[in-house]
Amino acid sequence: MSRKAASSSLAATLLATFLTTLFSISAGAQAVATFQLVSGDRQIAVATFHPPQPFRVRALDVGGKPVPGANVFIGPAASPGYAYLKDEFGFRGFNTIGDVIFDAGVPNPAYFGVTDADGYVQGKGQFVDYPTAAFLVGVVQIGMVNSVQSVFSVVSVSETPQGRPSVVVEYFNGEVKHYFNTLNDAEVTALDGGVFSGWKRSIGSFIAYSSEGDAPPGAVAVCRFFSAAFTSHFYSADSIECDAVIEKWPNLWQLETRNAFYIQVPDAKTGVCGAGLQPVYRLFNNALAPNHRYVTDAKLRSAMIAAGWISEGYGSDGVVFCAAA
């Protein structure tokens, strides 16, 4: 597989050839309305291009019944011809390479599958992004116009994280252009299930810990605030900052929890993270409806600042957390 940026015209030509070669799609194929994520979400891949677990989904029609015999792509959301998703700044992940196309020939069959009689299918195709990165693995039905897409979040790291790590998932609401992060299983299920209108899985994620017992030495609790007035959340690992928000804006920001997750923090003066850790930058949208975003990608951080976002945090780079790298 090629790990290079590709023009849309070349990608379209190659992908059309691959589809013809690999699958014969009937005009009357049943459309998938929903791909339910069954297993394999929020994986942590350590020094490998191969997923530790298969990505398993179930295809359902508009009535909630299983769709058998559907041809499905399950692989990195990096190719405009298959699964594909970018954020509002044109990035498809944190620290990822450009768009991906296949070299001439038949694509790796590990990316493709056919749903069984109960609508289930799984894939274990290799990744295309080098550690350290965070990206999406997408699921789409092949041969269907405007095919529904579902995504899995993956964090790829160079070394095994300490403790019992979890993945903090990023969501985006296109209506209000706000970001939200969570590692809470119930919240992830509700957001993916459409309980909260407008929120979709976004490109980014990073490693943190669900509890103090899961976290390595030196990790601290992260407080989380919610503003109903702004439909926005705010996170801080600085207990002094948490208390200041409570004192200064009691009517605007409601403290939801003192321990949304646990994570290590940088040097308060320099913003430098310890060995084996990467910086998590905090950026403020500087808008009437305030919102913050937390990213591990320095190039994305620069693009956001160029678009008017303001860097916040420790040191000259505005680092607030330190996540496993």
Note the topology.
Elements lengths: L7 H15 L11 E6 L3 E4 L8 E6 L10 E6 L16 E2 L17 E3 L5 E4 L9 E9 L7 E9 L8 E8 L4 E5 L2 H8 L6 E10 L11 E8 L4 E5 L2 H10 L5 E10 L13 E8 L7 E4 L2 H9 L3 E3 L6 E6 L1
Parallel strand pairs: 2-9
Antiparallel strand pairs: 1-3, 3-7, 4-6, 4-8, 5-8, 8-9, 10-11, 10-12, 13-14, 13-15, 16-17, 16-18, 16-19
Description:
13% of the residues lie in helices and 36% in strands. The protein has helices at 8-22, 185-192, 239-248, 298-306; strands at residues 34-39, 43-46, 55-60, 71-76, 93-94, 112-114, 120-123, 133-141, 149-157, 166-173, 178-182, 199-208, 220-227, 232-236, 254-263, 277-284, 292-295, 310-312, 319-324. The strands form 5 sheets. Strands 2, 4, 5, 6, 8 and 9 form a 6-stranded mixed β-sheet that branches. Strands 16, 17, 18 and 19 form a 4-stranded antiparallel β-sheet that branches. A 3-stranded antiparallel β-sheet has the order 1-3-7, with no helix packed on it. The longest helix is centred in the N-terminal third of the chain and has 15 residues, at 8-22. The two termini are 25 Å apart. Residues 1-27 have low confidence and may be disordered.
